[in-house]
Amino acid sequence: MAIPAQSQPSPVPDRRRRVIVLLICSMSLLIVGLDVTIVNVALPAIHRSLHAGVSGLQWTIDAYTLVIATLLMLSGSTADRIGRRRVFQIGLLLFSLGSLMCALAPNLGLLIGARALQAIGGSMLNPVAMSIIRNVFTDPRERAQAIGLWGGMIGISIALGPVVGGLLVDTFSWRAVFLVNVPIGILAIVLTALFVPESRAERPRRVDPVGQLLVIVALASVVYAIIEAPSAGWLSAQTLALGGVCVIALAALVRYETRVPEPLIEMRFFRSAPFSGATTLALGVFTIQGGFLFLNTLYLQQTRGFSPLHAGLDTLPMAIPLLVMAPITGRFVGSHGSRVPLLAGAVATTAGGLMLTQLTPTTSMVYLFGAYVLIGLGMGLFNPPITNTAVSGMPPSMAGVAAAVASTARQGGSTLGVAVFGVLAGSRGITGVSSGFATATHPAWWLAAGIGATLFLVGFATSTPWARRTAERAAEAIEEETAASSPSAAARLVAH
Fold first, then answer.
1. Cα radius of gyration (the chain)
2. What's the pLDDT score for residue 145?
3. What is the DSSP letter of 7?
4. Which domains can be identified in the chain, with CATH numbers?
5. Which of 12, 261, 293, 423 is the most buried (most CB within 10 A)?
6. Interval 210-221: pLDDT, tens
7. How far apart are CA 210 and CA 220, in angstroms?
């Protein structure tokens, strides 16, 4: 039987075209990553312009990260089904349109809504870009180099975001941090049409609407409960009801996902200790990062009185170690494994959090930069091993799904970090009582140190011989169950 035209693999582009495709995909990762860090610097200006309280600023960040976290896996499977280039272009269009709406938003509610639209587009970019790269770069060595360069955009976006954001806010206004995305997005749409080949998965995963809905309900309910609890009351009917909804949704998700053939989240992965550990690590590390970026910009601008550009430049001691260490750590993991970077990253992150527990309105900048360096160093040491640990031992056909779960945990961690750290610090840095904001952040930094210490234990446990054996057993069980449930898969297994 002839293969349908839409399932036929695209011819491999020549090297020049492959490099252009890599640049286009990297551009998408850069603008999505920039949009997290660049907006943090604009928060005080948004507060003054739109009269936003602390919960409003939390939603300005979390409306973006929350939607991305809940839609990443759906976007990836949709692209595999209907076409990666098509979904990538739709994502760029929605991201650009959402950015324009953010720039024009007359009030906080419309800004938060536009951020959610941005995130719907953003969820279609990074996982789909990875699939495009894997499809275009067929040589394993060249593909590894391309993915390494693409992943480096995360560090660049964290390094550039605060500086570019500060420059735009100082020179123009907070609206410019959104408006700058529009021409970049339009350029990327045109270049995608010209250079990126269309491709689809030979056997795309089924859409899992029930699982998707349960993920949205679980994450949205807990974030809403945390952000609104200070005004509603921690023991109010609203907070308790939302907490109950989250617990019920999570329980239903676990039960449902174990009973469907192609679930949104493969619960079988969690039989592997390295995979479970990687998910925990991603959640914890990005909780610290999200909370740090949120509180730090308020401290530098509201408490220290720095301009947005000055505040952005002051974050470079955090961003540069992250940018430098990520590729070095990646190479180290490939040769020596994940244990040393995971443990060193946990120690650095814990030490940085402990240093920030002594924060005052007049803390020495040398001391402050020391804490920033440790946190950036920790992030740079953590990121490469997280993905490597998530996919280690997984069947090759499941590696992409495993990496997607780790990416979702990263975004979920960022969302929770902004919610939890913002609530712990309270509203004094926003409402004008800036002198007390430094002290108010201390519980958040103690929490960061506690998370770092916990991650040390998780990193140690998931890099032991016992953990590796659980990964091997999980992979074998998944392959056997997949073969048993699919006659075509069984036939392929026998053929090999």
1. 22
2. 72
3. G
4. 10-198 (1.20.1250.20), 209-263 (no CATH), 268-496 (1.20.1250.20)
5. 293
6. 998 999 999 999
7. 15
